[in-house]
Amino acid sequence: MIWLTDDRNRRAVIVAIACTAFFISFIFLNRWAFTELGVQSFGRLWHYYISYFDFGFKKRALFGTLLTELGLNKITSNEYVFAYVIYALKIFLFTALILYFCLRAVPFDNLVGYAVVFLSPAFILQSGYITGTQDFQLLIIMAILILFVKRDVWLTILSCVGVLMHELFIFFLPAIFFLHTYRSEPQWQITQRKVAHAVLLSLPVIIVIASVLFFGKIDTQEIPKASYEEVMEKRLPNTAYKRSLWGGYSELSRPIRSYTRSGEHVVRSLLEAARYIAIPLVYALSLAIVISLYLRESSLLLRLAVFLVSVFPIFAVFSGYDFYRWIGMSTNVSLLLMVYLSALKRIHVPATVLSFLLVFSCFAPFGGAELERPFPAHQLLLEKLVGPG
Length: 389
Prior knowledge:
Blueprint: H1 7-29, H2 52-55, H3 62-69, H4 79-105, H5 111-118, H6 123-127, H7 135-147, H8 152-165, H9 173-184, H10 192-215, H11 225-235, H12 249-252, H13 263-272, H14 274-293, H15 300-311, H16 323-343, H17 351-359, H18 376-386
Helix pairs in contact: 1-4, 1-5, 4-7, 5-17, 7-8, 7-16, 8-10, 14-15, 14-16, 15-16
């Protein structure tokens, strides 16, 4: 279409695509209007209300500490109202960040590329569904690090913040540090000085990771469950005791060894659920293959590195049960790398390949914990129309 050759018209279409993604994600966020669970479909809320000043240094408590000490989570007495409002703000912030970068850096010369990013079944749309996690905070931090941060000091600081938000951020670090190295040295020439520099950058992050893993667990002798829940009950009066994980005690008191699952068990579970996981898995692998295949570098090692850091979050399945979350995280890494490397003109994905990737948007959003529910919105709609099963 001729009118799309005008820059203002192209920008208007990009903004329209981003707004569409925001509003669809907003609908997924407010699924309480269509489900039997109602507002409880949001999931866990405790991480918005826990504080270091109540229980000491604990994993996954940084965001709640900031909200609690600033008094932000006391704006409303209903914790569900607060959770839905702040999550909507996070969706807006993330969409605005990606849109700002796209309008400024112009990564794609084809509008399909923007649709692939904004209307991905992961990224913005899945984020509107997996509300009971801290994944969205981590995704926002990762986006800032990949798209905007160039200074070493901010790379280290924000990486530490991400780990303190949730130890899941560890699975983003390979992509973040890889891109930071690639950004400063596209030819990937490794020297002793650069290795030493990388070690210095990563050392504070490693210390934070070790601190979270070894000292961030609740000591059940020091903080009994009853004492913990007494504090959290006052902050979560509409949530207390209604669901098994309402207060977060069992998650915060879990030992490190309980996070690991045997490879045999994981593989067997996924093979048994092959008919459910096939489409999300193909999508995640396709994205990783595309960005490594169309990278404008001749080095096979560099292409392999791009692929591996993109799929690395999938291996979190060995420490947790939310397979589609990890698929979504892998997809998000790939999409952010594709956007940034396209802006640098280090990668150029043909329109036909982008169109193939766009087809997967028909399956948005991907699910969360249940293997048999890869496409929760579609399955819910079918259940409303024809009944369960």
